[in-house]
Amino acid sequence: MAKAALKKTPWTPPYYPIIYVRGYAMTRGEMDQTSADPFCGFNLGSTVYRAVAERERAPRKYVFESPVVRLMSEFDYSDVYEDGQDILDPGWESSADGQPTGNQLGSRSVVIHRYYDPASSLFGGGKTPSIEESAQRLSQLIARVRELICANPANQVKPADFRCYLVAHSMGGLVSRAFLQNPALDVAKTQSCVDKLFTYATPHNGIDVAGGNVPSWLTAFDIDNFDRDKRMPQYLALGDLPKKNGGRVDLLPEALFPSRKVFCMVGTNRADYDAAAGLSRTFVGNGSDGLVKIENATLQGVNADGSLGDYAARAYAFRSHSGFYGIVNSEEAFQNLARFLFGDVRVDVWMQLDEIRLPDKVQQAQDQGREIDALYQIEMLASPRGKLWYLTRRVAEEDSVACVRHATWKKEVPHYLSSIFLSNAAKVDDSDRSLSYGMTLGIRVPDYEIERKLWINQHYEGGYLFRNSIVLSMIPPVRAGAAWKVRYAWQDAGVSSPTQDVDVSSDQLRQRAVNIDIPFESFSIDAQGQRVPTRPGVKGKLQFRISAWNA
């Protein structure tokens, strides 16, 4: 983005240093390649295409420059390299004759955790560091960044006030979690310096191959790092939590690092992941980004008493694990990253089903005491006003839907769908004070089963029990301390501006999340023009849990 095109409205500070932790490199050649790259892939962009109206015209390009370039052009971040030296190199602060170089580190710096350098045949001894060693070096790197930030008087930062952001791809998220969750690996005592963690396509619950967990004995290329039965509980210091939670390792103790400070960006496109000549996407299978299963790429907090806590924020994008159309080098993921780090408002979107109406024949079977089941697929798409991309995209064809089973639906409410972060500075029209986005909710017609036999008498593939879009706008108060106004409008009668009003006080937003329930129901229009509930159909409510962010 050209500097001249930047908005005058500033994004919300603070602007802490960003430490990027790259993902897994399998072979020695890949380790050499990543070590030779100053930004370890954080500097890769992509060019995608959008169709135009005329068939004869070429498609329209949409260029994403890269996370590093966009952080520099939009937020005035800079790299830390000076005269070919990294901040860990002895020549960064002083020259060969012992004279100070004058190099200083600004708060808006992008630092790369180059943990594969020791494994490289170019810079190291060829020995691949373990997850534990990489986590320890991350702790030490944060200490080094803190030292340099606090030494620069222009930053006006004291050691006790120093904070940084961790941004990690794939296995880098596991390195970050090992550092944050396992006190034994925090050798420099810098865990409290981390303000937020953002992960791209991290296998938080391990990697499945051919339908099963990576076995612990598969130590070649350190693939056992993704074994959730033995290896992951060790370096994540989870104790007996996996045994108490069905073998899960996608758990983050709230006392060590709050789940509210974590964002999980999930990829859903396996087709564009061509690692190992496409073998990875073949063995990992559907419902993945080509390497990591969608269901394994998110986190949930664990309370001090061992009960499950809040979900970490999450969003979904139709991007592969890596490559030209990978998740790191995507506009969708960058927009979520920027809003999570610097945004103003957080909206956690939940859905509660209050009633499910079965087809008449299926209902009759249930009334007769016969076993009924079905799997309801919940779709959700959300996009900000005036943009050409989704902040989150969950659809059935990409295996990214939330699923609700009929046999247990009353026990599983409400259902967390996604989190949306909004920013005043990202608006397309500065004269409009509102923060707005559109959201589509869809509930697919399921495959109904009667005593485990498929009932398809009235089935139309691809149909919906409910599908509608809603526009939600949040209007900040004109004067400090006054109420926010939240407006919304369903779009079933055509595109319309929000009209329904809800007042929310500024104190409520700052102190806790404000819940706004918006009802929905499947219906048809009768001969008199009245809405009539349909069968089959659903009735429920969307729950928007809105809170101030970075306030």
Automatic annotation (TrEMBL):
Location of the GPI inositol-deacylase PGAP1-like alpha/beta domain: 131-206
Domain of life: Bacteria
A GO molecular function held by the record: hydrolase activity, acting on ester bonds
InterPro entries: AB_hydrolase_fold, PGAP1-ab_dom-like
Bilayer-spanning residue ranges: none
Pfam families: PGAP1
Name of this protein: GPI inositol-deacylase PGAP1-like alpha/beta domain-containing protein
Species this chain originates from: Stenotrophomonas panacihumi
